[in-house]
TrEMBL record:
Transmembrane segments: none annotated. Catalyzes the circularization of gamma-N-acetyl-alpha,gamma-diaminobutyric acid (ADABA) to ectoine (1,4,5,6-tetrahydro-2-methyl-4-pyrimidine carboxylic acid), which is an excellent osmoprotectant. Pathway: Amine and polyamine biosynthesis; ectoine biosynthesis; L-ectoine from L-aspartate 4-semialdehyde: step 3/3. HAMAP family: Ectoine_synth. One of its GO terms (biological process) is ectoine biosynthetic process. Its EC number is 4.2.1.108. Pfam families: Ectoine_synth. It is an enzyme of class 4 (lyase). Belongs to the ectoine synthase family. This is L-ectoine synthase. It comes from Roseovarius litorisediminis.
Amino acid sequence: MFVKKLSDTLITPAHVTGDAFESRRILLAADGLGYSFHDTVVKKGSTQRLEYKNHIEANYCIEGEGEVEEVSTGQVWPLRPGTMYVLDQHDAHIIRATQSDLRFICIFTPALSGEETHDASGSYAPPG
Ligand SMILES: CC(=O)NCC[C@H](N)C(=O)O
């Protein structure tokens, strides 16, 4: 077994910050589990259009209030602690942190190596 801490991640390149979010990637491809595990904060007032063409992402909200929109249908779901949304079809989506910062536990498969940033389409590069 092994143990990792959020506080250790904060001083590594796997702490990725952008205008709209801060992603603390605790478990990475190098850990050999087949998925990466992130503790991510999305900033209040931000809107992000994302589309993970090379990954599946599951997002479990643990703090804050906002919403997620599925681009293909326009359907909008509120996000509150205890709500999980899963992008199992590489779905284009829009995250809005309407009321407060949002905090998520995120799982990516395949695992991220740790330093990925969004390209213009809101995607991360494929592994390798
Ligand atoms: C929901 C969200 O913030 N997505 C962008 C960041 C991504 N979840 C990550 O942790 O890299």
